[in-house]
Amino acid sequence: MARPRKTLSLLVLAAATSSATQLLVAFVGVPTARSAQGPTPCFQGLTALHARGGGEYDVSDADIEKFYADLTTGEGGDPPKGNTVSEMIVKFFHGEFTKQGFKRYSGQWKGPPPGNIGKKDIAVGIQSLKDQMKNPMFVTKGGVGYGADELQKVVDDGKGWVWLAADMSPNGMAVELLTSVPYGKRAILVARQNNVDELFAKVNWDQATTNIGVTFGGPHLTIMDGR
Known about the structure:
By secondary structure, the chain is α+β, with helices and mostly antiparallel strands. The protein is 42% helix and 14% strand. It contains eight helices and five strands, in the order αααααββαβββαα. The protein has helices at 2-28, 33-36, 41-53, 61-71, 84-93, 119-134, 196-202, 205-211; strands at residues 95-98, 101-104, 161-169, 172-178, 186-192. The strands form two sheets. The protein has a three-stranded antiparallel beta sheet. A two-stranded antiparallel sheet has the order 1-2. The longest helix has 27 residues, at 2-28. Keywords: Signal.
């Protein structure tokens, strides 16, 4: 009688092992809808942290200082008429900044000839830009690193700089102000926020125009003129 009992025990053990194996396969072998859709938020966070931790698109304090030094090699003043930078500044700063948003100037440009952007229009746009760089009403989040998750970006990275950067929008190229490094955007101007006037006293507008064609802290992307 001992022998059949042993055989029965072995059969029960084999059945239990088989059931456990099937259960394990069912647990780890069938992808869930969540895993099939890609990384979970946890992995997405790790990707963003990797961008912050280092890489070819890192921007150091020394990089920012060099960018500023290259930009302040001119004679200052307002950008010339017909310049891409001057037209962008007039388009996005000649108007009224309200709590409801920016209201673009809708009157006639002073020219010459009347109806075209002229020196007087540029002067108004530049003064508005200066005022906003000193005390911006609207600031775009940035910093952290290229490709960072939107939730990890910050309004102010504490470095003391204020940036004018260009980026693509549904209506073409637009400019915005940031008080954090504009990773992946076209950094046009940068100033020390406690001394904005220094930038405009020494700005090299040719350099500022060149900056539009270079992605700052990100891969180079060819863009169309979005004026």
